């Protein structure tokens, strides 16, 4: 007799640009996973984002691969391509619909920092978001964690270890030749150097793109299937 699964899986969803992924993201995901007893946290690098049109975002494959590198050592962390493989703008409603379709037996917990939480009400199809996932707002240095206007039952707030790290600061540090060791995982430091990301002449949206894209085409075949199809 098959015993079957006794509980619905609890899956965290950490959406972000991850340009680059840093220890603030990883600590937040780890802490939420522990407190909410999640089976897994899926990192979902965004495709094009409506509110990041004013700057060149690094090629999605680089952001995806950095996220894979950063999460590879944690068996509870995986990475999904749903947003970067979907054409057009990334809207969280589509992320959650796609993940719900891929994981019909799971409850989804969407993790978001205090800077993003107040924007949720302005997102596309905001009314439907609450039926697709429970939202978890986490503390972030420099931002107030304010649930104002958000539905009382659909959102939880929690404190995570304060990591005053942002991708914007990491990009700026690399551009200035300053170190990002210990702000991002070691493998991400090395990945950034390998492809010359965030430097004036070698960003993945600029001159260095072609070599990196060729390398990436070769590298993709080496990415383990479990990682590529993370949200199975
Ligand atoms: P950028 O400066 O480019 O906006 P970022 O550091 O804000 O980058 P994102 O990829 O925009 O990183 O963030 C993805 C998610 O992670 C968001 O919900 C954001 O609030 C959260 N987050 C980012 N950094 C931290 C941090 N240091 N502590 C807690 N949450 C964070
Ligand atoms: Mg941000």
Main sheet makeup? 6 strands, parallel
Weakly predicted, low-confidence segments: 206-214, 217-232
Mean pLDDT: 87
Report Rg.
18 Å
Distance between the ends? 25 Å
Q: Which geometry do the CA atoms define?
A: globular
Strand order of the largest sheet: 3-2-1-4-5-6
Describe the model.
Strand 4, helix 5 and strand 5 form a beta-alpha-beta unit. This protein starts with 8 loop residues before the first strand and ends with a helix. The longest helix is centred in the first third of the chain and has 13 residues, at 23-35. Residues 206-214 and 217-232 have low confidence and may be disordered. It is globular and about 45 Å long. The protein contains nine helices and six strands. Helix 2 runs antiparallel to helix 7. The protein is of the alpha/beta class. It is 35% helix and 15% strand. Bound molecules: adenosine-5'-triphosphate and magnesium ion. Adenosine-5'-triphosphate (ATP) is lined by residues 16-19, 24-25, 28, 112-113, 115-116, 138, 140, 163, 165-168.
Blueprint (SSEs and pairs):
Blueprint: E1 9-16, H1 23-35, E2 40-45, H2 60-71, E3 77-79, H3 82-85, H4 92-102, E4 106-113, H5 126-132, E5 134-138, E6 155-158, H6 167-175, H7 186-195, H8 209-220, H9 225-228
Helix pairs in contact: 2-7, 4-5
């Amino acid at each position: 007799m098959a015993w079957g699964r006794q509980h619905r899986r609890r899956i965290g969803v950490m959406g972000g640009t991850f340009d680059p992924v840093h220890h603030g993201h990883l600590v937040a995901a780890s802490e939420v996973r522990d407190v909410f007893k999640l089976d897994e946290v899926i990192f979902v690098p965004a495709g094009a984002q409506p509110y990041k049109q004013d700057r060149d975002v690094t090629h999605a494959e680089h952001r995806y691969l950095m996220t894979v590198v950063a999460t590879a050592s944690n068996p509870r962390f995986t990475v999904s391509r749903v947003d970067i493989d979907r054409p057009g703008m990334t809207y969280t409603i589509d992320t959650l619909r796609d993940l719900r379709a891929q994981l019909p037996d799971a409850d989804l917990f969407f993790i978001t920092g205090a800077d993003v939480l107040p924007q949720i009400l302005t997102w596309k199809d905001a009314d439907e978001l609450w039926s697709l996932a429970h939202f978890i707002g986490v503390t972030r240095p420099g931002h107030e964690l304010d649930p104002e206007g958000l539905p009382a039952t659909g959102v939880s707030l929690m404190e995570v270890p304060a990591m005053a790290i942002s991708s914007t600061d990491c990009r700026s540090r690399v551009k200035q030749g300053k170190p990002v060791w210990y702000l991002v995982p070691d493998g991400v430091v090395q990945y950034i150097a390998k492809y010359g990301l965030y430097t004036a002449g070698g960003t993945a949206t600029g001159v260095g793109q072609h070599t990196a894209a060729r390398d990436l085409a070769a590298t993709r075949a080496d990415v383990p299937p479990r990682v590529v199809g993370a949200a199975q």
